[in-house]
Structures are given as structure tokens and as C-alpha cells.
Amino acid sequence: QVQLVQSGAEVKKPGASVKVSCKASGYPFSSHSITWVRQAPGQGLEWVGWISVYTGKTSYAQKLQGRVTMTTDTSTNTAYMELRNLKSDDTAMYFCARTYSGSFGSEFYLYYMDVWGEGTTVTVSS
Amino acid sequence: QSALTQPASVSGSPGQSITISCTGSASDIGNYKLVSWYQKYPGEAPKLMIYEDTKRPSGVSDRFSGSKSGNTASLTISGLQAEDEAEYHCCSYGGETTLVFGGGTKLTVL
């Protein structure tokens, strides 16, 4: 069956970096893109960014620009989200999600996320 | 990329219907037919309930329906059941390859 399996919980100090993985199975990895979403304690879902597995094109939330990088490894069907210079308000559960998207001209439209990983807790604390 | 606006909480009794609103702008909800809704239990991953404003994935109960008028999307749950008690999050395409979420609504089944 289609599933996304994420890496385990991380505890980091402020200023450090974290790299979360998301291994896909049960479907052709390049046929869909991947979205990353986070949820801080007591807060709503927040879009972190998106990557097209097929083209490598990325789009990141404005507030995280310069600190976040998303990549994929098609040889292992794995997506990665790296967040640098961690701050305490980066403490959250991070989810990856298989995403339906389509390109028209130079723009990729993001439709919806139908399969989600189980989440990875990232705690930033001194 | 301003967040969409949802009520913090709604409640209803078993068997009743409830509607959760999600208000955006002409730059997101009002400009695309790309609103989705997700159900989330504490400690679990979100689950897709509605996509492209009104479509329901296979396996999702037909008690769940989506609609939209102008810049406001809505999720209606009819025949409320105890298992529907969860958080519900709306999401819209925001243009320029971005997504925007609402703050989430906690549904309590009385």
C-alpha cells in the first residue's frame, strides 16, 4: 500500500540544523510531489514547503526562506527536509505528504495531499 | 501568505449537522477551485476529507461535504457521530506555488 515513513524524533539546540527524511513506497516516487507541513504545540497546520520529485523544483514558505532546503533521492525513494539555524519556535511535529500538483506554463499548482507520513517531532531547546 | 480564518471551535450533538467556515481572500480561496479539508486527531497524521472544494476521496463518508461561496469555503458534517470529534483544517492554493492553511477548528461532539 502507499505509505510514507518518516525518520525518528530529534532534539536539537538553538542554532543547530535538523534533517528529516520521508521514505515513500507503494507508488512511483516521481509521479507525485511532496509537501512538508508542521504543527507547533497547540497551533494549526503550517505549510513549510514543496518539492517536485520529477523536476526538483521547490517552493518554500516565505518565513523560512534561507533556512530550509528540500531535496529528494530517487534511488531510495526518499524526500528530505533540512532546517538550519533552529529557533525555539521551530519546535513542532513535521509531516511529509504525497501531493497532487500540475504545471501550467512556469507555475506549479498544488492541489491537495492524499497520503501523509506519521510525523517527526523536532524539539529545539537549550 | 496570510493564514485562512477558521472558528477556533464548534460543537454539536450526535445526529446533528455542523458547518465549519474557512475565510480567505480573492488571492487564494476566491481565485482557485483548490480548497482541501483535513481531519486530524491528536498525535496522528492529517487525513484528507475534501479536495478541490467539493470532491470527496473514496473511503470518506458521504456525511462530509464541501462547498464554497466567494472567498469562504465550508465543511459540513451531517449526522454527527462521536468519532467525528477531531480538529479540522482547511487549506487553499495561494498562488505562486504556495499553500495556506487555516488555524484549525476543534469539533466537540456533545
Number of helices of chain A: 0
Question: Residue ranges of chain B: pLDDT <50 for 5 or more in a row?
Answer: none
Biggest β-sheet description of chain B: 6 strands, mixed
Mean pLDDT of chain B: 96
Please bin the fraction of helical residues of chain B: under 10%
Distance between the termini of chain B: 35 Å
State the shape of chain B. Answer: globular
Q: From the helix content, strand content and strand pairing of chain B, which structural class follows?
A: mainly beta
Q: Over the alpha carbons, how many angstroms does the gyration radius of chain A reach?
A: 14 Å
**Main pleated-sheet profile of chain A:** 7 strands, mixed
Assembly level: heterodimer
Beta-strand portion of chain A reads over 45%
Name the average pLDDT of chain A: 97
- What pattern of helices and strands is seen along the backbone of chain A? EEEEEEEEEEE
Terminal-residue CA separation of chain A: 40 Å
Count of alpha/pi helices of chain B? 0
* SSE-based structural type of chain A: mainly beta
Question: Can you walk me through this structure?
Answer:
The complex is a heterodimer of chains A (126) and B (110). Chain A has 126 residues and is mainly β. Chain A is 0% helix and 57% strand. In chain A, strand 9 (92-104) and strand 10 (107-116) form a beta hairpin. The mean pLDDT of chain A is 97. Chain B is built from no helices and nine strands. In chain B, strand 3 (35-40) and strand 4 (47-50) form a beta hairpin. Chain B is globular. The chains are: A mainly beta (126), B mainly beta (110). At the A-B interface, strand 5, strand 9 and strand 10 of A face strand 3, strand 7 and strand 8 of B.
